[in-house]
UniProtKB/TrEMBL annotation:
Keywords: Methyltransferase, TPR repeat, Transferase. TPR repeats lie at residues 72-105. It comes from Dyella japonica A8. This is Methyltransferase. The lineage of its organism: Bacteria, Pseudomonadati, Pseudomonadota, Gammaproteobacteria, Lysobacterales. GO terms for biological process: methylation. SMART domains: TPR (SM00028). Residues 280-370 form the Methyltransferase type domain.
Length: 441
């Protein structure tokens, strides 16, 4: 009979290779022979969380910590489960315990800074980021995250200038961190250093002429012609690269509340959470809207252009069906299939909304509802029908543009309300929260 340590080693190799079924089988084989083997408990807990079984994952890691209470990686991973489930206080306690066990554990320090920021404790978060860079001065991601923090909480122009240097350092330490280049360009634009921002993207394009991200971002800062909507390849590349940290960035990103605000608006016109509707989460991302939609859904479908995001939504669970597809084309292929189509912060990557809104109308059954959020373009003239591509790479829309495309598509009972959907660069981001109905037959 092979030594259980060989089986454990094989399990960990399978886990690293993302062969989750094989890894689980081997971890359980170890635990059949040694029920309290701490590494098998720990890593099986991580695996179960990856599968969307977060409570079971937490229980397994807690069992491992009863055997090895001073294991910093286990405390850190338990904190990650709490963080990703929104239990920020519990996550903070785990990260602090990891740091008690190992003061130089830079991943735990990184995560502690994130959850402090998410709890809107910016002074403590700043100190935690500063400590992170003391522990790991060559950690590129730490410089990148501090850059985001400084820009998000900027109280003066010096903070934005400092963010530029953080992004510059992050890229110098790791030239695979292309989000640092994007962050640098956005900060430069915010400083009104537009030509420098454009040059960042031109240099990037010079190195990677086929990369859709710098091409789109160059247009976003006025260095190239504005496209009518974000290219599919841009959206796919951005969100595939963002998938592993998407929830974390929204958690950090300061009061992100688009799904909750949108569902509050829709709940006012839906007949209670009685699980009777056929629902499409249009641009489902990692599935943040899933728990809000599932009480209303007899059948819940999620669609997203990013395969990486869809895999995260699958792990989160709650969807009856998930698809990787471009949204407009998907809607056009599913006429009169849904009672509710909901899209939180997806249509910000569309310029002219005419085609996608018409496709949503066609995909709804008579009497069905469409709900979505956008970034608001405030216009002095109520008749101003306008769309603008911003330096963030997202589009903003005037109220008149939204109303016109809803009218042209045949929607009725339209409501367009302004609200704050999140904060960015230390400032509230105002958006439109929109609902409209396809007329009954």
């Amino acid at each position: 009979m092979p030594d259980y340590r060989d089986t454990l080693r094989e399990a960990m190799e399978a886990h690293r290779a993302n062969q989750l079924d094989r890894a689980e089988q081997l971890y359980r084989a170890v635990l059949e022979r040694h029920a309290t083997q701490p590494d098998a408990l720990h890593y099986l807990g991580v695996l179960q969380h990856q599968r969307g079984l977060s409570d079971e994952g937490a229980t397994l890691i807690q069992a491992s910590l009863r055997v090895t209470p001073k294991h910093p990686d286990a405390h850190n991973n338990l904190g990650n489960i709490h963080k990703e489930c929104g239990r920020l206080k519990e996550a903070e306690a785990c990260y602090r315990q990891a740091l008690t066990c190992s003061p130089g554990h830079h991943h735990a320090q990184n995560n502690l800074a994130i959850v402090l920021e998410a709890q809107e404790r910016p002074e403590e978060a700043f100190l935690a980021y500063a400590r992170l860079l003391e522990i790991a001065p060559e950690y590129a991601q730490g410089h990148y995250l501090l850059g985001l923090f400084l820009r998000n909480y900027a109280q003066n122009i010096e903070h934005v200038e400092q963010s530029v240097e953080c992004f510059r350092m992050a890229y110098a330490l790791d030239d695979r961190n292309l989000r640092a280049l994007e962050g640098m360009g956005i900060s430069l634009y915010a400083l009104n250093r537009r030509e420098e921002a454009a040059q960042v993207y031109r240099d990037w394009l010079g190195r990677e002429p086929d990369n859709p991200i710098p091409r789109h971002m160059l247009a976003s800062c006025g260095g190239a012609e504005t496209p009518p909507r974000a290219d599919d390849a841009y959206v796919r590349n951005v969100f595939d690269g963002f998938a592993d940290s998407f929830d974390e960035q929204l958690l950090k990103n300061l009061g992100y509340r688009a799904p909750q605000v949108l569902m509050e608006t829709m709940a006012a016109v839906l007949n209670g959470p009685n699980a009777t509707l056929h629902v499409l989460d249009a641009g489902c991302g990692t599935g943040l809207c899933g728990p809000l939609l599932s009480p209303y859904a007899a059948h819940l479908v999620g669609v997203d252009l990013s395969p990486g995001m869809v895999e995260k939504a699958r792990a989160r669970g709650g969807y009856d069906e998930l698809a990787v597809a471009e949204l407009t084309a998907y809607l056009e292929r599913h006429p009169q299939q849904y009672d509710l189509v909901l899209s939180a912060d997806t249509l910000v990557y569309f310029g002219d909304l005419q085609q996608v809104v018409a496709a949503a109308h066609a995909a709804l059954r008579p009497g069905g509802w469409l709900g979505f959020t956008l970034e608001a373009l405030e216009a002095l003239d109520a008749a101003d029908d306008r769309v603008e591509l911003t330096p963030s790479g997202r589009y903003r829309h005037s109220r008149r543009h939204v109303q016109r495309v809803l009218d042209d598509a045949g929607f009725t009972d339209a409501r367009i309300e302004g609200d704050v959907l999140r904060r960015e660069g230390g400032q509230p981001v105002r958006g439109w929260v929109v609902r409209a109905r396809r007329a009954s037959a």
